[in-house]
Amino acid sequence: MRHAATLCVAFLLVCGCLLLVGGCGSGAAGPPAAPPVVQVWPPFDSKRARTDRGLVIRAQGGTLTQVLVYEGGEPVPGRLDDARTTWRTDWTLRPGAEYTVTATATREGAPATVAMGRVRTRTAARTFQVAATAPLPGETVGVGMPIIIDFDAPVEEKAAVERALEVRAQAPVEGAWRWTSDTQVIYRTRRPWSARQQVTVTAHLAGVRAGDGLYGGTDSTFAFTVGRRQTSTIDTRTHQMVVLRDGRVAQRMAISAGMATTTEYTTTSGIHLTMDKGNPVRMISPGRQKGDPGFYDLMIDHAVRISNSGEYVHAKDNLWAQGRSNVSHGCVNARPDQAAWFYATSLRGDPVTITGTDRPLEWDNGWGFWQLPWEKWRQGSALREIDGPGERVPQR
After folding, report:
1. Pick the catalytic residue: 239, 272, 302, 331?
2. What does the angle CA 207 – CA 210 – CA 212 come to, to the nearest 5 degrees?
3. How many C-beta neighbours within 10 Å does residue 66 have?
4. What is the pLDDT of residues 316-328, one digit of tens each?
5. How do residues 365-374 score in pLDDT, each as one tens digit?
6. pTM
């Protein structure tokens, strides 16, 4: 019996060891995973952080699951990359501002990492901003209307400033900016705007470096409306003008164009845009003094300007010439009642295409921007070799 009891105890010990070994093998776990590391640039507690490089948050050994950045109580827009490891502000940082950051990173099998802190940007010794725009805020314009932005200081770093300009339209359209001087940049669409939509333009200039020691001081936003689609064609050979409204004939007008005895008296052919209008407008003969042959100083009714070289569509009571011959000093004149109608129905940016003369409209004569082929227009962009094709305007 004692021998049997000893064997029983040994058997139980062996079974216990086997169970213990089996239990250790099936439930064994390695060391816990290391938590991810969150890196913020500019680093927390910076007092004079640069503004032109924005704010960047990265997760090492994990992914970012939440990023909250605020400035002045307002959320700061930014976006994650596809791997969800890097978050960047959409735009540059405002000078002399404080940003609060809360970033959470996670990794499977590890506790989450939450990084919280503040970053303060340096102030700018010199700032620049938007000085003027066309269209004006709230204006309703024609389908050919460009967007013109003037700055109050010369821009050296044009690519940085151009990249900060955002155009958002309800109907997406391809467009590009072209610099015409150090203080002016113009946006033209590849094809005319779609009618009856709102367009919002934002210059995210705050913190953008435009030159040595020159930074954008504030952002600027304005919106305008593209109205009905009105286009006009003028044939100086047949002396006729046809106005289309949303593709249908709205008016037919007999006209008289430039007499073409000199270059200045020759109406320019090409795609013009209506620029402004006045009733009346004072028109004085260029380069002539009172008493000189050909001198004139007249007040002209219902005048719609279409170039910077003195061309208007306006009223003139010379019915004997309209529809028959060209006798003007370069303008297009029409019957007073029809000119008044055109004046009343025109919006800035309505296309007016003129044919039949040997004087082409220069692309920089007024708003003759549609005279340039699209690829030529794009060559004036500071981003043409950096960002590739023209900007595709996003849908709201």
Report:
1. 331
2. 105
3. 12
4. 999 999 999 999 9
5. 999 999 999 9
6. 0.86
